[in-house]
Amino acid sequence: QVQLVESGGSLVQPGGSLRLSCAVSGSINSINRITAMAWRRQAPGKERELVATIFSELRKIYADSVKGRFTISRDNSNNMAYLQMDTLKPDDTAVYYCDARIGSAWYRTTTDSWGQGTQVTVSS
Questions:
Q1: Strand 118-122 to strand 11-12: parallel, antiparallel, or no bridges (unpaired)?
Q2: Which candidate in 56, 72, 81, 93 could, as Cys together with 37 as Cys, close a disulfide (CB 3.0–4.6 Å)?
Q3: Could you tell me which of 92, 83, 102, 97 has the C-alpha nearest to residue 31?
Q4: Could you give the C-alpha distances from 59 to 17, 35, 62, 70, 116, in angstroms and in order?
Q5: Closest Cα partner for 20 from 68, 92, 108?
Q6: Under 8 Å between Cβ of 19 and 84
């Protein structure tokens, strides 16, 4: 079992930047089996979508809508994941969630336990 807690969301103007953080805690066995981290988001009235995934520093995958603007990173020593978001657009407005892949299964996706996430609102 792991716990994932997001933070860093806020109201920001178009063109601005935010850095989201995800703190990972729980059983050492589960944490040591994390093979990837991801950020997902859900806008009002829309389905949850995958934004970015990090398997390693050399293997990161981004949704087309955020390529070149968002950067995912991970600090394994401190059990943290981050999402640097630059040049934000109103379409980026959503609740953002992090997810952890333990072994071959995405924890939150598998358990459907999403928590509150962190709200990002891009508006002037």
A1: parallel
A2: 81
A3: 102
A4: 23, 12, 10, 14, 28
A5: 92
A6: yes
Chain centroid to Cα 75, Å, comes to 13
At residue 24, the pLDDT reads 97
Would you give the end-to-end CA distance of the chain in angstroms? 40
Work out the average pLDDT over 1-30. 96
pLDDT at site 52 = 98
> Residue 32: helix, strand or coil by DSSP?
helix
What residues contact 54, with CB distance under 8 A and at least 6 apart? 36, 37, 38, 60, 72, 73, 74, 81
Torsion sign (Cα): 115, 83, 88, 58: negative
Backbone φ and ψ of 55, nearest 5°:
-100, -35
**Residue range 20-32: mean pLDDT, rounded:** 94
Q: Which residue has the tokens 């995912």?
A: 72
Q: Is the pLDDT of residue 113 over 90?
A: no
